[in-house]
Queue: 4 jobs
Job 1
Amino acid sequence: MLRSFDYVRGSHDAPTSEAARAWAGEAQRSFLEGYAGGRDIDTAALAAYQVDKAIYEVVYEIRNRPNWAHIPLEAVHDEARRVALHPPGHDKGEN
């Protein structure tokens, strides 16, 4: 379901705009809050799963709907940028 919000964003007139990114991010957060029901979520595992799914989608879209490949590619790019800016363990002083 979380990846579906990126497909909605990708169909937007300006999918890389701040407004489109903000909408998708808020939709994903709201969904997770409702789904988790107050339980903690392993965000590292969730991020890894989402990237794995997005990479699978890149291959699928290239084979079946090449005009849509930009949607999962943008998700992979976003996650790579996020990790580059905030490496795992960086805030905790880990290497």
Job 2
Amino acid sequence: MKQITKYVIKNSLKRIFLYRACLVRLRMMGVERVFSYTLGNETGVTPDQVRKDFSEFSIKGNKRGGYEIDELLSTMESIFHRNKDHNIVLVGMGNMGQSLSKYSRFVQRNMNIVATFDIDPFKQKMRSDIPVYTMNRLKEIIDRFKVKVAIVAVPEISAQEVTDELIRHGIKGIINFAPVLLKVPPEIVVNNVNLSDELESVIYYVHNLLKADGQKNIEYYTRL
């Protein structure tokens, strides 16, 4: 039975990404050890939250002596399976797909887009470091490179059909940039990334801040 994915990306996992970025920066500054309160201050959470997140992912440290940064980063590398390459396919070579296919940080983190796919014959002829194939070669490429994760960057109208085909050929995880909630079998992981929603969230908070500032100004001048 298909459903909206049950695998919601945990906030604790998102915070691990923030901790890792902070640790990398501290290491570049020559810092060797760090305390939970430092990580908390840098990432906007309490020291207790840092320790709780670390405990959830079996990251151990010394409460008095702090954490060794190199050891922390090594543990985080193992959490995200950075010790091996991960082959990925990308479906949809519109503006979003082309930008994603050129994103250099994927390679830096051992995530290799081995092939892209599009139904447009013009895009299939594009000169690129990563080949653009027709959809009828999807199974061949997935099998050849043992791909388990795919990026979907197609229009909303075709996203579910593309997802069904990817799953049928062995894909277990999908990063979805189409503005639609995909329905998948229970064992499939889907992470929906809607850039419009993210931007609207920022707009919402900006307007709330402006409204609050405006109210403060009114109260200030009223007291004069």
Job 3
Amino acid sequence: MAMNTAESADELISRLAATCRRTGLVADIVEPSTRIRISTPNGNQHMAETITLKPDADDVLMWWWSWNRPICPAGEIDFAVRSLTRVVAETRA
């Protein structure tokens, strides 16, 4: 059973991008409905993250890290943004 049937993948990607931008992140939609690149303004380009929106093995629509690990269910936008912020805001010495 697929989750988020009331909200399309395009809407979820748009919501994630908007929420990221409101928190000060840079959000570029790479592929509508499926991929978005998140980074910090003037940040380290190597710290950017491209995440994917796709179902898991149980057909639950999830956000996925670039290393193919789930972040959270697609509807949990705030949690996804907090997780993304922790990853892309890290600095390397």
Job 4
Amino acid sequence: MKHGTDSLGFLLHDATRLVRRRFEARAADLGLTSAQWRALVHVLRAGRASQARLAERLEIEPISVSRLIDRMVEGGWVTRDADPTDRRARIVVPTDKSLKTFEEARDLAEVVYAQALAGLSPETRQTLMGALRTIVSNLSEPGETPCSLAHDEAANVR
């Protein structure tokens, strides 16, 4: 295993950063950041989600999720409803705007993924995706649902 900028960690980080940057550039007209997109995918997948659950799924602090959701509410992407079972909790619910925009944002993401994978044969793409799934599986805690599964399930959100 190489160390330095050719290491697995650096390459994964750089690839993720560049995909995120390209998506944000393409999705700017939608008014949607990559962080908002990730949150929206989780909310749409669940139909509604508590802010605490979103913080857990996005692996960010609850205060950061609160700020993110504040911006999403301002943008008309989601609403906050009172949790009927816990008066202290707020449930994040997708709006019609997010449902209508989901397909367009997903299509933008697919264009970025296609750019990222350009020049790789179908066999190499399949090998890469399989290798990444194995890495995710190897490093996931027992009972944990990796975010990659959330992405696969998000493809079925309609």
